[in-house]
Amino acid sequence: MRFIHSGSTRRRAAFAALATSAALVLSACGGGAATEGGGEGGSGSDGDQTITFIPKQLNNPYTDVVLGGGEDGATEAGFASSEVVGPLDASASSQVSFINAETQRGTNVIVIAANDPDAVGPALEEARTAGAKIVAFDSDTNPDYRDLFVSQVNAKDVALIQLELISEQIGGEGEVAILSATANATNQNEWIKFMEEELAANPEYAKIKLVAKVYGDDDDTKSFQEAQGLLQAYPNLKGIISPTTVGIAATARYLSTSEYKGKVALTGLGLPNEMRPFVKDGTVTEFALWDPAQLGYVAAFAGKALADGDITGEVGDTFEAGELGEREIAEGGIVLVGPPTQFNAENIDDYDF
Amino acid sequence: MSLDSKSAVPAHPTPEHSRPSAFASFLRLRELPVILALVVLVAVTAALNPLFLGEQGIKDLLLNATILMILAVGQTLVIITRNIDLSVGSILGLVAFGTGSIFVAAPNLPIIAVFVVGMLFGAVLGALNGLLITIAKVPALVITLGTLYIFRGINNAWAGGTQYFAGDRPEAFGNLSVDTILGFPVITLIAVVVVAIVAVYMLGTRPGRDLYAIGSDPDAARLFGIPVTRRVLLAFVVNGLLAGLAGVLYASRFNSVGATTGSGLELDVVAAAVVGGVAIFGGSGTVVGAAIGALLLTTITSALTALRVDKFWQQAIVGILILAAVVIDRIASVRSARKLRIAEARNV
Fold first, then answer.
1. ipTM tops 0.90
2. Could you tell me which residues are beta bridge partners of residue B184?
3. Alpha carbon of residue B33 to chain centroid
4. Mutate which of A59, A184, A219, A224 to test chain B, going by most B C-beta atoms within 10 A?
5. pTM for this entry
6. I want to staple B247 with a disulfide (CB 3.0 to 4.6 A). Which of A158, A172, A241, B92 is the partner?
7. Do A82 and A189 belong together in one domain?
8. β-strands A50-54, A133-137 pairing
9. Which tens digit of pLDDT belongs to each residue from A281-299?
């Protein structure tokens, strides 16, 4: 009911709350005050707020870990309910109908990993007009369309660590290629851009040549064949960087079953559980990733702080992210989660995700 | 030309005549254009990039074609009866995920048993398609479009975010797509055996020939006393069985099986059959042609990558091939119709 009268005043919200129970009155007042601070009337009272996660695609193992952290975070932060909806394919426009549905339901916080920075724009605008707070995580939307972006780690750090790893593994010299996800994935392209800049600028990498960028569309079969094609097209290839969990696993599978095993280096961003056999059989020496669960966890707390009006997304705003402690909003409305972890034969058994 | 066709008549089986006639019938092979295209493609690519025909290169080419080949053979049976099965990608996905689940649940199960279970599972799904089509008498296009989504939906509900990785399966199972015998990967040999068995069945057995008759004219076939329902059902069951086999092999070859495994594959399969000379309106085409069509399509992808041609051109090239196949097919059928008329006129 409160969602239908989304423009309701504090009195009306209090009345509605009175009608249900006295306990709710108190929280409704609290919520009302927060609403005023946030400058919008749609959010329900404390304890009634809802959060919905829209990942790039459902049934993706990496996404599942992120969302697991997100749901934990949502419960701890005090959302009344949290939900996950999303498309089964990671195409540019597939998320739009889900955003529209959330707008109609009056969800308070939408957390989204954009498949395309602009395709989701108009739908998110509408959601904001209706009073929802938008938190982007994992893959950013165009900054105009969201309040905050929760980033795994500094994009540049992610790019640099992968370059360091590949440089180490190929002895600082030779041809390398990148096997990415989709050609228009925001996070992928940002990392690739930083890698290219660093390769050009850093004299340590002067002897490393980036010969190709190919796209496996986060599809196992396609990534597998792209890896195969890379090795055929570039006979002198020394290493492959795959900044996507699907891509690195598929490439590892191909390398481990071919004559290139142990000869062509592979690194990138992978899930320890998926990469374990390839680290153990010597196909992969070392790769990196952040803890994906923390990403969802922080996004949930950021959403809560926005919905309560504690923060507005200004640079310098801070909020408590549960057991992970205080986070500050950096330039561009970005919240950083933590440094990436490197996984190798020695420590990979310590992780389970 | 008329000499050749005369010599093909068994009334003159002299050895001098049989040789040119064999050559002539080779020239008239429906599979000839696709074989030629394959040879030219491989030759040109290998000339520009010798690695393409290196040991690993050949192995990759064969491995890439294996799964599509098996699917194309099954699809050909169905298309020949003037039907189509769009649900094969979803069947493959279900069986592939099932295979992953079986190995996790019962790691010590003999590999051969997993093959049997996977193929039976596929056959059941195929039978479901066949029954719906033959009993409800709704066009296969509609029924299998429906089951495409139903099977995929079940797969999504069953798998959720779960994926099983190569590491979860016995090494011997994964090695089926790594080990080679005389340069041929084991799973490719399985595919070749499948092609051979089905090809012989289609050429040499009564039910095999019946499928062609049904596709040429279902009503005439029924009048002629062919058990049309049973035969069409058989085609769908065999197609499901082969999709199941392909699903098991998929799990052997690729790293992960999950909710989206095999989605979108159905169109590649139909394209392979059509490019291989299987007429989409039924009644003609061979499983060998379809298998070569599959090999051609996967080889194109590899060749364009090896030659560093932009990915975006690949789909356009596949499209052109399909159109070319259809045009060649049309010309061939017009010519053979004319020849038949001339032959009949002579006999009178």
1. no
2. B181
3. 17
4. A59
5. 0.76
6. B92
7. no
8. unpaired
9. 999 999 999 888 889 999 9
